[in-house]
Specification:
The structure is a single chain. The protein is α/β, with parallel strands linked by helices. It has 2 domains: about 100 residues, 2-Layer Sandwich (Threonyl-tRNA Synthetase, Chain A, domain 2); about 300 residues, P-loop containing nucleotide triphosphate hydrolases (Rossmann fold, 3-Layer(aba) Sandwich), CATH 3.40.50.300. It is built from 14 helices and 16 strands. The strands form 3 sheets. Strands 8-7-16-15-14-9-13-12-10-11 form a 10-stranded mixed β-sheet, with helices on one face. Strands 3-4-6-5 form a 4-stranded antiparallel β-sheet. A hairpin with a 4-residue loop joins strand 7 and strand 8. Helix 7 runs parallel beside helix 9. The longest helix is centred in the first third of the chain and has 29 residues. It is elongated and about 100 Å long. The termini are far apart. It binds adenosine-5'-triphosphate (ATP). Adenosine-5'-triphosphate (ATP) binds next to helix 6. The site of adenosine-5'-triphosphate has 15 residues, from helix 6. This is Cell division protein FtsK.
Length: about 450
């Protein structure tokens, strides 16, 4: 074919491609909601201006070594101009902002881009910009248009069982990225914070989310409730296989029963499941994950002052409660126990430090003092002032907690969705038929082997 028609065909193909691409972009824009449209406009601005803004912020390098091609086409006797190399980017917009995938170039990596994060945020008109590695030679830059921590969210649990019990989706971080806490192989979770900042709502989210699964059983000791049929958990009682109020002796009976269950499970598990760790085979209806929530936990552990007979009895019960819960946290992980210790007062005088420090995950809503923040999250929190729960003392931060996230350095603030007691109660009532005492599910010592038991279950 002569050269002219070839050029026409190539131009035609390019034009068709551009028209299709333009139509696709316009359609995507028109179908998006107003928040996503704003993010799409931002993404387009970031791509358009990147070649100019990257060098202005020092995110470009001069490549002085000419390529072979450049040498060949350079005018005789003249050295080719150095090339400016900037990190290549692609963007993806969502409701909250834009995720930018960036390829590193020599000398410009995560540290260099992080140093410019504040300037990038100013340049793009964003609330925040974060930078994390995304595999070798790649970065993920997240630009959020507004502060996700400042906007309360709500979660309404449904009746569908979660796809996995290994993680608990908790909320979103300050870059609107989902945050989940591992439940698998985690012995305990400590939740601390001032009254009214969202601890109960967080527990509602846990119960509401996992109640539809027949592979989870819940027990609650509520130090706020005077009787077992009062307080925050009364309406979800149908989905709890055990429930006690603030009576130390009743709580003692529950913790003793659970330690016995832990031991019996340990004795039976290897034979029945062929493993000493339930997470190797995942919890099931016959071998459910046992979640024990101890709310206002200090009620059950604090030593009363006074030397009269009653005080001495209560002190003995509190010490025994501490010993039993410590046992569950230290030894319960592999047999499928997760103990959640919720308290307004995380300091050593209220919660034994061995219990608190053995909890693999620690979460803190607002705190009034540095001492309480350190007790809740550990000494390292002093080095992360932005995420310190003392700075969360503001009505705008009800529902925001600080925690460590696996694989991420330091502490992160997380916006938890509000889950109302009535929504949780609805799920608990609808799933009440799934409630079973896990002790009743244990195979008898001389009973059926693993295969027979699975059938029986
Ligand atoms: N995640 C959230 N987002 C927005 N608002 C929330 C959230 N969680 C709780 N709230 C609001 O704060 C109020 C108090 O929450 P919650 O009862 O969970 O606090 P708490 O820390 O358990 O308090 P207490 O220690 O007194 O039990 C709720 O009634 C609700 O209106």
């Amino acid at each position: 074919m002569p050269p002219e028609p070839i050029a026409h065909v190539a131009l035609g193909i390019a034009a068709a491609f551009l028209v299709t691409f333009g139509a696709f972009t316009a359609l995507r824009y028109l179908r998006a909601d107003s928040e996503t449209r704003a993010s799409l406009r931002l993404a387009s601005r970031i791509r358009r201006t990147w070649r100019r803004s990257a060098p202005m912020l020092g995110l470009a390098v001069a490549d002085r070594t000419p390529t072979t091609g450049a040498q060949l086409i350079a005018k005789r006797g003249r050295r080719p101009e150095p090339r400016t190399r900037i990190p290549a980017i692609t963007t993806r917009a969502d409701r909250t902002g834009v995720s930018i995938r960036m390829k590193t170039v020599a000398g410009i990596g995560v540290d260099e881009v992080t140093q410019q994060a504040r300037h990038l945020a100013d340049l793009w008109g964003c609330a925040r910009v974060s930078v994390v590695p995304d595999g070798p030679g790649r970065l993920l830059v997240r630009a959020v248009r507004f502060d996700p921590l400042a906007a309360p969210t709500r979660y309404r649990p449904g009746l569908t069982a979660p796809a996995t019990l290994r993680v608990w989706p908790m909320g979103e971080d300050e870059y609107a990225k989902p945050v989940a806490a591992a439940l698998s192989n985690v012995p305990g979770i400590a939740v601390a914070g001032l009254p009214g900042y969202g601890k109960t709502s967080l527990i509602n989210s846990l119960i509401g989310r996992f109640a539809p699964s027949d592979a989870v059983q819940f027990a609650v000791a509520d130090g706020k409730a005077e009787t077992a049929d009062a307080g925050d958990y009364a309406e979800i009682a149908p989905r709890l296989f055990a429930f006690v109020g603030d009576d130390l002796a009743e709580a003692n009976k529950l913790f003793t029963r659970l330690v016995k269950l832990r031991r019996d499970r340990f004795a039976a598990m290897k034979r029945a499941l062929g493993t000493a760790n339930l997470w190797d085979v995942n919890p099931s209806a016959a071998w459910p994950l046992v979640i024990l929530v101890i709310d206002e936990a200090h009620t059950f552990f604090s030593q009363p002052k006074g030397s009269d007979k009653r005080s001495r009895e209560l002190a003995a019960l509190a010490a025994e409660n501490a010993r039993l819960v410590d046992d569950l946290i230290r030894k319960g992980r592999s047999v499928g126990f997760v103990t959640i210790v919720v308290t307004q007062k995380p300091t050593g005088d209220a919660i034994p430090t061995s219990i608190r420090d053995n909890c693999g995950i620690r979460v803190s809503f607002a705190q009034t003092t540095q001492e309480a923040a350190v007790a809740a999250l550990g000494d390292d929190i002093r080095q992360w002032p932005d995420a310190n729960p003392v700075s969360l003392q503001d009505p705008a931060y009800v529902g925001v907690a600080s925690m460590r996230i696996q694989g991420q350095e330091g502490f992160t603030r997380v916006r938890m969705p509000e889950v109302t007691p009535s929504d949780t109660a609805e799920v608990a009532t609808a799933t009440a038929h799934l409630t079973v005492d896990p002790a009743a599910l244990l195979p008898h010592r001389d009973g059926p082997g693993p295969a027979d038991f699975t059938k029986a279950a």
